[in-house]
Every structure is written in C-alpha cells, then in structure tokens.
Amino acid sequence: MGRPNGAPDLILIINAKESDPNLACDVRLVLERPEELISGIEIMARALDVEEVTFATRTEEGELLQFEKLLKERGINIAHIRPSYSVGSERLLVRELLGREVPADQFPPDVGVVVHNVATCLATAEAVVKGKPLISRGITFYSRETGGRNLWVRMGTPVEHILNYMGISSESVDRVVLGSIMMGKGTNDLRTPLLKCFTGLVALAFDEHAPFDNPYPCIRCGFCDAICPVDIYPSLLLEALEKGKTEALDNLNFDSCIDCNLCSYVCLSSIRVNPKQRAG
Ligand code: SF4
Ligand code: SF4
Q1: Domain 136-205 has CATH 3.10.20.90
Q2: Are strands 147-154 and 136-143 parallel, antiparallel or unpaired?
Q3: pLDDT digits (tens, 9 = 90+) for 38-61
Q4: ∠ at Cα 182 (180, 188), nearest 5°?
Q5: What is the residue with the minimal CA distance to atom 3 of ligand 2?
Q6: Best mutation site among 232, 241, 267, 278 for ligand 2, i.e. most ligand atoms within 8 A of its Cβ?
Q7: For helices 34-48 and 118-130, what crossing angle results, to 10°?
Q8: CA–CA separation, 12 vs 155, rounded Å?
Q9: Which residues pair with residue 12 across a beta bridge?
C-alpha cells in the first residue's frame, strides 16, 4: 500500500489533544494501552506512507513517561500543546503545529496533513492485528453526583443503561449531552444509543438550567468576536441570520465556523450565538 507516484509528502498528526473541558478518555487510553496505540500508529504511518508522525497531547513533558519513551524509540515526534479549548479541532491543530492554514472549503490532506484521533489508532491495531471490529469505545461520563469517570462502553448501549451503571436514576435526569459539553448534542431521549462518534456523556439534573433559555438583547460588547478562534465575526453573522440576510453569509466567512460554541459560551446576554447552530 502507498501513495501514487508524484503525490506530495504527507505528515500524520495523532490527535490526543482532547481540548474539551469534560473529556479525559484519550489520556486514559494512552496510560492503559500504550503498546497497542504505538502498533496502530505504525500501521497507519505505513499505510499512508507518511514522511513524519507527530503525536499531539495536552499533557506536559514527562506526564506520559512510558508512552513518551516508546514514541522516542520509534522516531515519532511528540508535541505538548497548550491546554486551551478549541486547539484540538483539526484545522486549528494543523495551524498550531505546522503553521499551515486549511481553507474552509478544503480538508487537512489538501495541505499535506492527515489527522487521526488517538482512539482510531487503537481501533486500527485491533482490526489489523487481532481482526477485531470496532464494537466498543472509551468515553468520559460526567454528572454532578459522580464527577468525571472514564468508561469502556459497547456501541449501541442506550444512555439509560449507562446511567443505571453509574447509579443514577433516570427520573432525576432532565437531559443528557452526547459528546463534549462544548460541542455535543443535547437530548432528553434516554433510549438514545451510544455511537462511535460520542467521546463523552454528560447527565444534567432538572435544576441545572439550560443556558440559552432566557436571552437578553445583544449589547454589542464584542466578546464573541474577540474569542472566535478562526477570526470571524459571530456578532455580525448573528445579525445577518436574524435579519434573514443569507446573501451576506459568504462575505462573513460563515463556512469557516468550526462550531466550537465559544461565542455562545462568552455571551453576556446568554444568546446562542453559534452561527452553525442558528442556521440549523
Ligand atoms: S462557533 Fe462561534 S466562536 Fe466558534 S468558530 Fe463558530 S463563530 Fe467562531
Ligand atoms: S457576546 Fe453576545 S452581547 Fe456581546 S456582541 Fe456577541 S452576541 Fe452581542
């Protein structure tokens, strides 16, 4: 296997950055399954025929001592990245590590970079070495009662079974967030099954209020514009969407939004500012 003759050099980034504040399952994976992860990285690097591999983590040097040693032995770079949300997103990770911009209408391979999550390395090793399909994954569960816990869960497990396992009564849960607290999707259907794309699960009680239920008018403070990691203007996008001026969206770089929710998080008026969510 390999790339066609004349294809540009590729760099493989293994993303263990896990910048979302409620997630820690990737770090757990590195601590518990280091040899299998290395095997998965080597299989990927060979299949993609890459020039170099960089393992990106939010941990500090020495925190993953055994794993760092294995990476060094194999000539794999390790990048300790500042632990700030949302640098884990693919486009921002490529910019942070390599200084390359990925245009909104392109993907990392278009600029010579392949980004894979660390959990994909384990799945690759299990599939290639053991012939085992992806039937379970690590997630980080969080609730006020239990705090954060890493769990290993079979695909298709209904949310209510996970709640029961954690000793939480379904009746006490108002809604859950599937995925990270910043970017996950909320639902009150506790029969929803766990899918391979869900890295976390947050259970919220009835007295944990929904943040955007009672918004105030925009006061043009500009906080949302200042925080946006892709340097677009969410306040102007909000205005355009509210006034139905959809022809203005292209000029305001709507497609560059990475759906990180930081603009909604910092809004003093509790407005759901995120343009991707407002546009539906
Ligand atoms: S969700 Fe908001 S802060 Fe995040 S990229 Fe989109 S506009 Fe910017
Ligand atoms: S943060 Fe909220 S109030 Fe401030 S400019 Fe943005 S939308 Fe308006």
Answers
A1: yes
A2: antiparallel
A3: 999 999 999 999 999 999 999 999
A4: 70
A5: 218
A6: 267
A7: 80
A8: 27
A9: 53, 114
**Residue 176 CA from chain centroid, whole number:** 17
Pocket probe mutation, ligand 1, options 89, 236, 261, 263, max atoms within 8 Å of Cβ: 263
Which atom belonging to ligand 1 lies closest to the Cα atom of 227? 3
| pLDDT digit string, tens, across residues 89-148 | 899 999 999 999 999 899 999 999 999 999 999 999 999 999 999 999 999 999 999 999
Residues of the chain with CATH 3.40.50.11540: 11-130
Ligand 1 contact, 267 CB (< 6 A) = no
The residues, any chain, with a CB within 8 Å of residue 102's CB and separated by 6 or more, are 90, 91, 94, 95, 108, 110, 111, 113
pTM of the model: 0.89
**3-state secondary structure at position 53:** strand
Distance 179 CA to ligand 1 centre (A): 18
- Pair 12, 114: CB distance under 8 Å: yes
Q: Position of tokens 């390395």?
A: 121
The fold adopted by the segment(s) 11-130 is Rossmann fold (3.40.50)
Q: Where in the chain is the domain with CATH 3.10.20.90?
A: 136-205
- Nearest ligand (C-alpha, residue 263): 1
Q: Is ligand 1 within 6 A of the CB of residue 260?
A: yes
CA-nearest residue for atom 8, ligand 2, is 218
Closest ligand to the CA of 260:
1
Pocket test for ligand 2, best of 212, 265, 268 (most atoms within 8 A of CB): 268
First to last CA, the chain: 40
Please enumerate in sequence order all residues whose Cβ is within 8 A of that of 73, keeping only pairs 6 or more positions apart, or say none. Answer: none
